[in-house]
Amino acid sequence: xSKKKNSRKKKRVNRAYFWLIxxxxxxxxxxxxxxxxxxxxxYAAEESKLQNELEAQEEKQEELENYESYIQxxxxxxxxxQSKLGLVHENEIIFRENE
Length: 99
What we know:
Elements: H1 2-71, H2 74-84
């Protein structure tokens, strides 16, 4: 009988170790999954922030392209010539104030 008791005792101890190890593994996995969900949320927030920044930069690029095309236009060249250089068209009359 003593062998039966020892055998049963060993089985109980082995089961206890098994459940202890299984519980430890499950606990570690739950913690790791929780950490991964937190990282995923942080990455999603960062992605959203970068997407907004990308859209802002694309709008700025479009504005710069429009400004570049305006600078290359004759309208801009005439405006600069009149304001900075004081040039006028042949048929224009300039009126100046007496000081």
